[in-house]
Amino acid sequence: MNAPLHPIVDAVTQRLVERSAPTRAAYLERLRAAADRGPARARLACANLAHGFAGAEPEAKRELQVVDRQAAKPNLAIVTSYNDMLSAHAPYATYPPVLKQAVIRAGGIAQVAGGVPAMCDGITQGRDGMQLSLFSRDVIAMSAAIALSHDMFDGALMLGVCDKIVPGLLIGALSFGHLPTVFVPAGPMTSGLPNGEKAKVRQLHAEGKVGREELLAAEAASYHSQGTCTFYGTANSNQLLMEVLGLHLPGASFANPGTSMREALTRAAAARATAITREEHLPIGEIVDERAIVNACVALLASGGSTNHTLHLVAIARAAGIALTWDDLSELSTAVPLLARIYPNGQADVNHFHAAGGIAFLVRTLLAAGLLHEDVLTVMGRGLSRYTAEPRLADGGLGATATEPGVVWEDGPEASLDTTVLRAVDDPFSPDGGLRVLHGELGTAVIKTSAVKPEHQVVTAPAVVFDDQADFLAAFAAGALDGRDLVAVVRYQGPAANGMPELHKLTPALGVLQDRGHAVAIVTDGRMSGASGKVPAAIHVTPEAALGGPLARVRDGDVITVDAVTGRLSLHVPAEELEARPSTGRAPIGAEWAGTGRELFSAFRAAVGSADTGASIFSMVPASSQESSLV
User: Fold this and answer.
1) Distance of alpha carbon 6 from its chain centroid, rounded?
2) Quick check: helix, strand or coil at residue 490?
3) From start to end of 75-208, where are the E strands?
């Protein structure tokens, strides 16, 4: 039996509902007006419709010509992020025919409506291409909207896994919030080189103790096959959040590619999408409400998920007319205990987490403690308790019925199967979720503390200022950072400066300095993602340096305090002196921000919002809560 809702979860939810009332109402009005117009293709002129089915398979072509409301079968859009360069998205090569067959069996038809780009932060780390990474989320959202824009579709299947792809697909899907939509994951690769060993080799390489050959061998042994990387960064945080939002099937997130279970779940997703389109009509915009967003925040905190979601969850919420803030996340963190230890917050990977009880047990223990809203809509129907179940193969996974194609659900574990990886609420790894919002003279920032030892959570030290991550690495390699405490300030890394790249190439070097016994922290208007680890990192600083934030006035030697305990980001410089200083350094502009396609995104840099509003080019929730409509 579930406990009453925790008072902090209840209070945050109520404030979120009140704050979002005008914009959420406007969003739902738009959604419901679109739904009232009925099957989209019935309104198309004959020439338009003929273009829409000209290339379809014979059965789909025949059914697409039926436009009568009562007789027409639902047509589902498949929007895919497939490419065969990226391990996480390569499995999607075989999905469209499997999905189409399963949809037909369930009484519908399906077409591949379009593709979206999928780039990998792991490949672009420290490269110019990383400056396009965050912007790719909004490109993906627009690409998904283009795919759905043809008025041919009654529901959707979204195929995506990694960092910006899933948030982008969800933002795009929410712009068609009247459509029932199911997200279809591809799963993580099987476990390779243990994460702790990989991290050790990286740090040894940073110290010059092993060469490139040894480093590449370790990386290849870790990232070795199709599927997502197995550490708990943004990609796997995405999967967990989609499940807790009720947009995946229960237990779908972490089944490995190429297994019978993976294919059975893929077929089941298609069948379920058909059912909620043809019979139950569960539009995605109704599922993603304020309670669902709070549930996603709680799950992120309890699992120690990626700090990138302090950007993505805010942007996703805004796409549904919901005004989520960093302070909401920070307040929830005081009530939500840390229940998982997955690398970089532990040594286990997501396969170990899944085997220990995974999302089913996490949802069960959080519901029992009153930390999640149970009474929410999901693609499986009403009630988050449906996600305490685990899938099992039926009939060898070959497909028992059209609506249960090879998979059934049974009660998941009532206790963790490995308490070194996953624990219950009454026996947490930490009493709080390990996410703080810092405020102070340098602005507002986010810090992830779940992997930071208590003795490192408060650092006061002189600033060493860099305007480029390459300069930091060069100073480290030259020994210029040895033998002292320091706060590395890496600025001009925000969305308006250079697209807000991830900086976790800096993590091994920072770890080396800390291991040498020095007090070390980093303060940046850039991102660190799931790589935020044992070194305290005040990230996403806003206002960013490129827009005149205080970071632009910091000088070498200024004393900074990063205090994750009290939530302070302090610059120990008199206010009058700071105000009198000119902004130093530079933002990458003009010819300096060109090449690798970056010049194509100058309009994004000019239009992008601040980190605390999701770092998005879209303006879907007004800055003022007094405004009453989406813009």
Assistant:
1) 25
2) strand
3) 75-80, 109-115, 155-159, 181-184
Phi-psi region of 590 (alpha: psi -120 to 50; beta: other; left: phi over 0): left
pLDDT tens profile 119-144? 988 888 888 888 899 999 999 999 99
Confidence of residue 365 (pLDDT cuts 50, 70, 90): very high
Max intra-chain CA distance, the chain: 77
Compute the Cα dihedral for 388, 359, 351, 184 and give only its sign: positive
CB 612 within 8 A of CB 325: yes
- Judge: domain 435-588, CATH 3.40.50.1580: no
Secondary structure element (H or E) that encloses residue 11, with its range: helix 7-36
Domain ranges within the chain, ordered by starting residue: 435-588
For 523, list phi and psi in degrees, rounded to 5. Answer: -125, 125
Nearest to residue 83, comparing CAs of 117, 113, 110? 117
DSSP 289-310: SHHHHHHHHHHHHHHT--TTHH
Strand order in the sheet with 75-80: 109-115, 75-80, 155-159, 181-184
DSSP-based three-state secondary structure for 431: coil
Number of H helices, E strands in the chain: 22, 16
Residue 239 buriedness (CB in 10 A; 0-12 / 13-18 / 19+):
buried
Give me the pLDDT at residue 312, please. Answer: 97
Backbone angles phi, psi at 101, to 5 degrees: -60, -45
Q: Which two tokens stand for residue 284?
A: 């995605």
Give the tens place of pLDDT for each residue, 299-331: 999 999 998 999 999 999 999 999 999 999 999
Q: What would the two tokens of residue 163 be?
A: 């960092």
The Cα angle at residue 268 between residues 386 and 142, in degrees rounded to 5: 90
3-state secondary structure of 2: coil
Identify whether the C-beta of residue 263 lies closer than 8 Å to the C-beta of residue 395.
no
Cβ distance 159 to 83 under 8 Å?
no
Q: Which ranges of 129-259 would DSSP assign to H, the alpha helix? A: 133-148, 165-174, 195-206, 212-222, 234-244
Strand 381-382 versus strand 407-411 pairing type: unpaired
Q: Is 626 exposed, middle or buried (0-12, 13-18, 19+ CB in 10 A)?
A: exposed
Cβ-Cβ contacts under 8 Å for 378 (sequence gap 6 or more): 245, 246, 247, 287, 384, 386, 387
Three-state DSSP at 560 gives: strand
Say which amino acid occupies 252. A
**Under a CB-based contact definition with an 8 Å cutoff, are residues 43 and 37 in contact?**
yes
* Residue of 340, 338, 398 whose CA lies nearest to 371: 338
Residues 6+ apart with CB under 8 A from 404: 268, 271, 394
The whole-number pLDDT of residue 628 equals 33
> How many Å apart are CA 422 and CA 351, to the nearest integer?
12
Return the structure tokens found at 64: 């697409």
In this structure, what token pair is assigned to residue 326? Answer: 């960093």
Q: What is the DSSP letter of 225?
A: S
Q: Other C-beta atoms within 10 Å of 112: how many?
A: 18
Tokens matching residue 526:
């850039």
Taking 70 as the threshold, does the pLDDT of residue 232 lie above it? yes
Q: For the residues 568-594, what does the mean pLDDT come to?
A: 81
- Strands 109-115 and 568-571 turn out to be unpaired
**The dihedral sign for the CA sequence 589, 591, 596, 602:** positive
Tokens 């704050």, residue? 19
Residues present in the chain in total: 631
Q: How confident is the model at residue 193 (pLDDT cuts 50, 70, 90)?
A: confident
| Residue 224: CB atoms within 10 Å | 15
